[in-house]
Amino acid sequence: MRYNYLAEAESFKDELIHHRRHIHENPEVGLSLPETKEYVISVLKEYGYEPMMYGESGVAVLAGGKKPGKCIMLRADMDALPITEESGVEFASKNKGCMHACGHDNHTAMLLGAAKLLKLHEDEIEGTVKLLFQPGEECLRGAKEMIDAGILENPHVDAALMFHDIAGSPVKEGCVGVFGPGAVYASADWFEINIQGVGGHGSAPEWTHDPVGAMCAIYQGIHEIIAEHRAPSDACTMTVGRLSAGTTGNIIPDSAYMQGTIRTFSEKVREKLKNDLVLLAEYTAKAKGVTATVTFGDACPPLMADGEFKKSFLASMKELFGEEAFDMEQIWGGAFKRTTSSEDFAYFSEKVPSGIGWIFLGDSREGRKWSCHNPKVLFNDEYLYRGSAAYVKAGLDWLYNQNAVN
């Protein structure tokens, strides 16, 4: 289909920037996003949609459905991170300790733009486009909640597509990259280790069982697991982001606490690393005269990009952006053909063929050197309209191709 989606989306560029900055100023964390949800609903109603609710804060609308065909879901996540903003922008977060440091405000604005663009072409859609505004991606629970609430049915979703923005890379702003095939985002398993000892006076360690020594030994052992217990070809990480013990310097504490994540591209390696961690913690603790309990919390599987979907997706992006669209397997010697970041969109990719794209909104050569999840990160929202056009182009082309085949 030959429509000038880029020009149409650019015509309401300022509107998308307004949406993004409003959402950026009012970030919310997790599965409960009351202000963000209401803002998205109000905009969608203004555009002529009838929003549907999924779970507490998930919002979806349907475009098309006037012609026979399949259904593709376009998804944007809406939640922020528990980070205090240090970006210095005029529209910085008004909610202390909360920031859109991963750029989900951009994702939401781009999908709102896609919704507006789809309304302009609704009579031409060969099938149905379902647009999902999803909470709870950062806690890895939102996508699963949406599936449990029935987002993949009524109408049945046949394929799904997501975009993520990227900052702090040396790629020209506004460019897009397409991932796949295979596992392109790693699985994620959050773990907690609670170590129980016997505390006491710092002057009499012989009367105690110090959990701090066990915590340090387990921490070191985690790095040895990655080095010694897996094949060099098994890309994976096991990192600890939180260590906690004690209240002052002259008291040996009763307990210690550790929290971290395991990430890998293989379900087999994933299960092995989890098992190795449990054995490490339990036996190390026993040797130190304390006990350690490992519990696993929020998780998601590896995110799989479908090979056939990728072909259509990449062709659409090449047609839309020319040389400013590329195959992630082909740039930087394939160094970015996959990422050890995790994405709960993986739950959708388990159910339906899925496409995964990046849009670059922070060229480090232009001063936007901070990456996602950094309190100083800066995104260039001048290019949000390109994301909106990309959503629409990829989605409608896929529907058109499916009808052509069938």
Give an overview in words.
- There is one protein chain.
- The chain has 406 residues and is an alpha/beta fold.
- The protein is 34% helix and 25% strand.
- It has helices spanning 5-10, 13-25, 34-46, 104-120, 142-148, 211-228, 267-287, 307-321, 346-351, 384-405, and strands spanning 52-54, 58-64, 71-77, 128-134, 159-169, 176-178, 182-185, 188-196, 200-201, 236-245, 251-252, 255-264, 291-300, 303-305, 325-327, 354-363.
- Strands 1-2-4-3-5-16-6-15 form an eight-stranded mixed sheet, sandwiched between helices. A four-stranded antiparallel sheet has the order 10-12-8-13, with helices on one face.
- It is elongated, with a radius of gyration of 23 Å.
Distance between the termini: 17 Å
Number of strand segments? 16
Q: List SSEs in N-to-C order.
A: HHHEEEHEHEEEEEHEEEHEEHEHEH
Q: What is Rg?
A: 23 Å
Average pLDDT: 95
Proportion of beta-strand residues: 15-25%
Helix and strand composition category = alpha/beta
Helix count from the secondary structure assignment: 10
Report the principal-axis shape.
elongated
Short characterization:
It contains 10 helices and 16 strands. With 406 residues, it is α/β, with parallel strands linked by helices.
